[in-house]
Amino acid sequence: MANLDLGWEHTTQWNLGVDFVLFNRKLSGSVDLYTSRTTDLLLRRSIPSIVGYVTTWDNIGATSNKGIDLTLNSTNVQTRDFEWASTLNFSTNRDRITSLANGTNDDLANLWFIGQRLAVYYDYVKDRIWQNTTEDLAEMEKFNANGHKFRPGDIKVTDLNGDYRIDANNDRQIIGHSSPKWTFGFNNTFTYKNWDLAVFVFGRFGFTVAAGSEALQGRFAQRVVNYWSPENPTNEYPSPNYNSAAGDPFRSAMNYQDGSFVKIRNLSLGYNLPASVTNKLHRSNCRVYAQMQNPGLVYSGVSWLDPDLGGSTFNRGVVVGLNVGF
Amino acid sequence: MYQSLKFHFNYEWAYATTNYGVDEFAVGGDRTMQMWNSYDANLNSLTGDVATIWNNMYGNINSANIVIKNVPLYYGEGTNRSTRLGEGYFMRGFDYFKLVRQYGGVPLKLEPSTTVELEFTRNSAKGVYDMIISDLTQAYELLPAVPAQTGRITKWAAAHFLAKAYLFRASELYSEWNGATRQADLEKAIEYANLVINSGAHSLAPNYSDLWNYTTVDGPSERLPEIILSAQFSNNTSTQGRYGNQLHLHYPSVYQNLPGMQRDIAGGREFQRLRSTDYALVVFDRVNDSRFWKSFKTRYLSNNSNGAPTWTAENAPSPDLVGKRKFTGGEESILYIVNDAGDTRYTPTSIMKRAPHMFVRYFSGEAENMLGGHGNFQASRYVALSKFADSSRISVASQFGQRDGILARLAETYLIAAEAYGRLKQYDQALNYINKVCDRAAYKAGENRSTYVDGGISYKNNPAANTAAFSSYSDKNTYYESNNIEVTTESTLSDMHLNSISDIFSAKDQFYDKVGATTEESKFIHFILNERSRELMGELMRWEDLARTKTLVSRATAFNDEAKPLPDKHYLRPIPQTFLDAIQKDGRPLTNEEKQQMQNPNW
User: What residues 29-48 of chain A have any CB closer than 8 A to a CB of chain B?
Assistant: First the structure.
């Protein structure tokens, strides 16, 4: 929809930065502190389709954003044959919705909530799996009296308002947010005589990945999961159900995982041929090296995908090279 | 706006919201949309297609609002002005009619929007019907009798839907408030139906199969005078949109994996969504009513000689045949035998002694059961509705169907008038109108009852089809073997024609006992619903007909093995959660209680 009420977005930003070099150039770096406030933020928003369109651009409200960026470069060890140098980046960022166009009301259709981050997840909350126990059967009976058809092996979501009825109006809540609380990058370079080794480690912490629910309906390929059966009363995944093409009605509640991870992005090892050899070859220099991109995750909150990319596929590359200077 | 007429044939929502969860069809081998059939917990306010129908109708209503607002400003006076304006009113009425049939009362939006609006409330179903009738009446007054191009909306299309809207408003679903308008609405339904019937513009096709005898894109079957309005699909790739007419995918049962068969363009892709129920087969008098054999496919030919099965020592008719192929390319390869309980001709072993693959509805000794569990029909092997077969497509795999989607045809107009007369207890008149479709459905003298045709025939005119190879298409059916009668070419008119209303009230084959119809009024409604099945089987109307007559629960329970609709819930669809979450009241979002109140009961 062409929104005739559209106006400019305004941002005020403060930034404080310090660059420093210390200890005879052994340690250098910079610190940036920033805070900004945006009013009349321009975003595409969902609107009631009654007007004929499902989205439009609109000035949706005000947000604040503050954070720290820190960079440290250090030479940790330096001897005649050996050097170890590091670069550390660290940043943390807090964006918040401070008000919305309609005042102080949350906007559920767009999942914008005052005091929350801009990109949040909102859904039913998975508690566990209904079990074939006397207590659970009695509990299910109360839900089923209100029209549910819960059976042992189904997902048990939290009945937030306690009315023994799970419904979209009363039993969904904010589950998490998709942007991390903080990230870091840590690069280390080691040199020993003609050898050099570099390792770049990268990590993101404090965010939610929305992936991992499985339909368990027996038609499409899916990963191996620990699913419920009478012999395996797990609380992880519900029982398979061939008759239900969509899977458990509350399966989206299985989706939300802590996405925190630490990952080696790059690993490289090189060897410079000594001058005695290069001279014989009549070359100014000669370097043999091997590099590996994305060798793997050091730590991850989710086992079945790469939370860096949000998917289960990623590129892993190995490069073996020779640099020759003429 | 015309593009939006195609929406009703585009994708899975086409049948899921209209022909699932009813008496005629249940879930086949592919269960993708099963929640619409079973009414299980996966059908709720967050289900994707609940919002798809809603959003698309309002999208087109907005286009209609723009037309209605701007045509008077820019078109001056004259024919163009009234035609364009009439089209705008028609579309708005038509789309609100779809909304009210699915959701009940919905917000009425009658002006185009240029700013974000958030405050909406639902109008009553009555208010929406008032608007529909007002819009369609305007459309009737404004639209021309003769369309400028094929597919344009005429005043007869407006009159047809006006008659239908009046009939709907006079139906049981609205009995709480329609008392005051009911009598007048039924008279109006008759009046507008008669305007179409007597317009001179429309007449029934002589043979029921003329409607389904689709030989080529935009061919004769798409220009029959019986068609009052159809969504225009063609082979023009610039207007086919994201989907084309995909109905050809959803009805076929699986043939491609039977030995001696492979998928071909004439047989189509078997998405096997809609499995015909026992009701869908038994509702027809399959000896005298030609519509069954012109709606369903019962015979296939082998198109893969190398894969054909071989005779074994156990089943070969003579020892020298053991190890030889049972059939070869071009020969009969699959037969569906549509018989009744009590037929002693077939057993699981006897059918193996036949050359073709045999699918038999009842084996010897099996008791009648309207919920399946007899013979060797299965989730993927059922008698497939073939009305929408489309072999003009550019390849075997193409989902882009090119057949027009019929939205209104004169046979339905007759049945609307017949139902309105019957509801007014003018049964003689009702019979006259029902007989129009019954008489046409009869076999004519000299007609070859084993002749079969469906849209698969269009492969013969399709350059993309390999006509030199064997085709699965068969121009014969299993009429004589299924019915187990001698060959005859006599007319069945006297068997099909209803002579008096007692033919309806004292009928033994209309399931009155199974659906609990005891009064004359109720028997008449169930008879009309049965007749609508016979005439309009699979034509994307059924759920709405059963919901409005409040027969959905009794009929789906009696005839659909999985459907479990609830009387206090399932006559309406849920209001989409996206709508409830987005709207406001007095500048604030709705509270959970207010949302619950705005939602349809028990969703």
Answer: 45-48
